[in-house]
């Protein structure tokens, strides 16, 4: 399993999500990359990252069955490649909490 | 206008992104906004027939209200054009306003106002990296460029690129409309872009606006389409070396698709706002048949985008019509709606430049080219008018004033034909062939 599942992640601060009938459109104001989130579940996961202690919890909160976690982890890695999402520093998260 | 009858309108819950896009989005992905019809140039192929300012042009306050609405709709960037947008006195003010409201700007210009000072502004933190500048250049040499864009326009564009480079502005775009005259210059364009630290962007010549008048003469020949396709395949293979604005999806029928959506986005993911607030389905379709509404008269841009009857129609899947039996239909999807419309071809048939040759067949048949529904061309030509049109205004001279042998016998006429490219004379029988070859020579003005 991808180590990412046990880590805290968050949506990048320069990214805006625009809801669309098929999911959402993600736009990064910094690198001006445009990405399409093709499933509403993926949008829920991405939106829930910052509030969840780790990625696995965010997936569970969004109702993604465990059998699909690996596939979602791969999709999230794809989003991380263009800085749509990024690892969340643990200390900062604790301070916020 | 009939696009195609009886199409389903319910969006499928799954399916590819392209299929989803065919049903339209809540807001456009990218929007073209022509700020003014006024222009210092008179390019022969101007797709918005620009020249004169329209007195109904949106005011500064109205334009800012449009930007506010785009921000609310999360339209993340707009392509601003014209006319020449930078000659609007409030252009720089609107640019900053958009950037301050999370609406990034890419603007197209012929470079006339990109002074060293403006270039420094564009490179400054005030623009926050949210501004892209696209300089139009339709020839890699002055001869080829000025032939369609007018005398001096090549120098203006290169000066602008130099100013941007000197100011430290990164990654300007050089935007080229591909024509019969410049397909052979693709490598030279790339070298120019590299020289100025710019990115090359190639787009398709559309028979829209004044483009309708010169399309027959300027659109790439079939073998040039292949040359263009091969060149693009080579230069887009490793990422984003060359941009195409998704312009050439009709070339996908050569085989492999080019990078991009390969889909007609008209009214689905793109549209155009014109200087008076009229909303059209796409930048290449400024015609009443593709007019969805007016953002001042019809309750704002969002209202027009989401509820106009025209856009609803465009968002239902199109049938292939005459193309549906073609094995390449899934690749090219029938090509460009605007190219078909402005050449008088049915919208559910082949693209006029169909690379499988169906377009030529369709063009040879009966068709009526639609009359333009609006024209902002200058009423009388100025010194900026391209040379190609001046040739047509030369006073006629009698054939024998230029050649004592004109019309002497057929053998002599034939020899004139073979020498047409080097002879300034115009024997009656040779005049057609000759005018074409002479009209490509900018020294003949």
UniProtKB/TrEMBL annotation, chain A:
User: Which InterPro entries has this protein been placed in?
Assistant: MftB
Q: Which domain of life is it from?
A: Bacteria
A Pfam short name:
MftB_chaperone
Protein name as it appears in the record:
Mycofactocin biosynthesis chaperone MftB
Which taxonomic lineage is given here? Bacteria, Bacillati, Actinomycetota, Actinomycetes, Propionibacteriales
UniProtKB/TrEMBL annotation, chain B:
Q: Does the keyword DNA-binding apply?
A: no
Which CDD domains does the entry mention? Radical_SAM, SPASM_MftC-like
Task: Give the residue range of the signal peptide.
Answer: none
Provide this UniProt record's keywords sorted from A to Z. Answer: Lyase
Q: Which PROSITE patterns match?
A: RADICAL_SAM
| Name assigned to this protein | Mycofactocin radical SAM maturase
> Where does the source fall among the domains of life?
Bacteria
Q: Which InterPro entries match?
A: 4Fe4S-binding_SPASM_dom (IPR023885), Elp3/MiaA/NifB-like_rSAM (IPR006638), Heme_synthase-like (IPR034480), MftC (IPR023913), Radical_SAM_PqqE_MftC-like (IPR050377), rSAM (IPR007197)
Q: Does the keyword Lyase apply?
A: yes
Task: Provide the Radical SAM core domain boundaries.
Answer: 25-238
Q: Which residues form a coiled coil?
A: none
């Amino acid at each position: 399993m991808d180590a990412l599942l046990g880590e805290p992640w968050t949506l990048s601060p320069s990214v805006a999500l625009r809801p669309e009938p098929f999911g959402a459109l993600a736009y990064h104001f910094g690198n001006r990359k445009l990405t399409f989130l093709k499933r509403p579940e993926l949008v829920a996961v991405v939106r829930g990252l910052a509030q969840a202690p780790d990625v696995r919890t965010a997936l569970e909160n969004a109702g993604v069955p465990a059998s699909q976690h690996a596939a979602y982890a791969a999709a999230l890695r794809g989003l991380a490649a263009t800085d749509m999402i990024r690892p969340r520093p643990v200390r900062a998260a604790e301070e916020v909490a | 206008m009939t696009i195609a009858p009886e199409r389903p309108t319910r969006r499928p819950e799954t399916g590819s992104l392209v299929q989803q896009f065919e049903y339209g989005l809540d807001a456009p992905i990218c929007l073209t906004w022509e700020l003014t019809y006024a222009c210092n140039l008179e390019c022969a192929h101007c797709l918005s027939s620009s020249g004169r300012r329209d007195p109904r042009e949106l005011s500064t306050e109205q334009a800012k209200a449009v930007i506010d609405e785009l921000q609310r709709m999360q339209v993340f960037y707009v392509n601003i054009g014209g006319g020449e947008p930078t000659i609007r006195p409030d252009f720089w003010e609107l640019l900053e306003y958009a950037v301050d409201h999370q609406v990034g700007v890419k603007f197209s210009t012929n470079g006339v106002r990109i002074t060293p000072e403006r270039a420094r502004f564009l490179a400054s933190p005030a623009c926050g990296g949210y501004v892209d500048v696209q300089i139009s250049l339709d020839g890699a040499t002055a001869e080829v460029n000025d032939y369609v864009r007018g005398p001096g326009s090549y120098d203006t564009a290169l000066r602008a690129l130099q100013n941007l480079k000197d100011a430290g502005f990164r990654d300007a775009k050089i935007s080229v409309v591909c024509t019969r005259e410049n397909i052979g210059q693709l490598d030279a364009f790339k070298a120019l872009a590299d020289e100025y630290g710019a990115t090359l962007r190639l787009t398709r010549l559309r028979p829209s606006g004044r483009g309708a008048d010169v399309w027959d003469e300027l659109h790439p020949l079939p073998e040039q389409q292949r040359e263009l396709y091969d060149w693009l395949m080579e230069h887009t293979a490793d990422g984003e070396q060359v941009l195409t604005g998704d312009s050439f999806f009709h070339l996908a029928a050569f085989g492999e698709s080019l990078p991009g959506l390969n889909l007609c986005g008209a009214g689905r993911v793109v549209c155009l706002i014109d200087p008076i607030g009229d909303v059209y389905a796409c930048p290449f379709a400024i015609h009443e048949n593709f007019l969805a509404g007016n953002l001042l008269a019809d309750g704002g841009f969002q209202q027009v985008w989401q509820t106009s009857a025209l856009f609803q129609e465009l968002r239902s899947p199109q049938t292939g019509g005459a193309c549906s039996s073609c094995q390449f239909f899934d690749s090219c999807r029938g090509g460009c709606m605007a190219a078909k419309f402005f050449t008088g071809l049915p919208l559910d048939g082949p693209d006029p430049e169909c690379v499988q040759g169906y377009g030529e067949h369709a063009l040879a048949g009966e068709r009526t080219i639609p009359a333009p529904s609006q024209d902002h061309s200058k009423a009388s030509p100025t010194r900026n008018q391209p040379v190609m049109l001046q040739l047509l205004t030369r006073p006629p001279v009698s054939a024998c004033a230029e050649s004592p042998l004109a019309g002497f016998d057929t053998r002599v006429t034939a020899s004139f034909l073979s020498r047409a490219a080097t002879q300034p004379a115009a024997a009656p029988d040779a005049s057609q062939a000759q005018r074409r070859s002479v009209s490509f020579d900018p020294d003949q003005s």
